[in-house]
Fold:
Amino acid sequence: LEELDGPTELALNDIGTVTLRTSSIVIADTYTQNRDTGAFILIDEHSNDTVGAGVILEPREVKPGEQTRRDIKWHPSSLDRARRWGSTGQRGATVWLTGLPASGKSTVAVALERYLVDSGRVAYLLDGDNVRHGISDDLGFSPGDRAENIRRVGHLTRLFADAGAVAIASMVSPLRSDREIARALNEAAGLPFLEIHVSTPVAECERRDPKGLYKRARAGELKGLTGIDAPYEDPEHPDLAFDTTGADIDQLVARVVDLLAARQES
Structure:
């Protein structure tokens, strides 16, 4: 067999050692311990074709926020957080808005960002669509790609919050497991994380339908729309929940700001 050092891809019939990361916990053993739970196949979720098979050499549980790679190290700043926040007078945090498409997440997020900045705070909105124009422009909307997009945004909010900004993430983020990763990334760094459930019912979201997504999904032109033929898991214990149907957006923003102030002072 011809050996390649650090190949960029595995083609048909190639054999290689790879690291796979799953979006949720998978119970596995090493192949030497158990040939059933130590082996796997990879299936293309679109074509249902088997595209690979392998054996497990080393299963590992990766906890969000912990360093897992041995070939790199974290280079700390010369400023600790207390000095940075004390000098700027700004305490960082993450506000994560989750809900169905057209639930009003972006409307609340935009108003919240404007309110905080107008009040002299540093805040920045990380909208799900906007992130896909750059940092996640290589990702689609498969379950795996959605999980990876949320993981990336979770890391971004952690960096923003550590810098002292209020990071506002507006993401459908339909699965609890993905949202818990974002929370864990921030809490592992000792940063406040507020999960806001924009709980507008699907009927109201469909009535609004500003992008025509629900109409396309009902017509069979769009597959995998959250709330229609893809699941949305309501947060079990959100820090705050509200329905935007007929609501005063400024009042909703005030509720978020009050909660944020209380959480940052605790």
About this structure: The chain has two domains: 13-62, 81-265. The CA atoms of residues 78 and 84 lie 10 Å apart. The longest strand covers residues 50-55. Strands lie at 39-43, 50-55, 93-98, 123-127, 166-170, 193-198, 240-242.
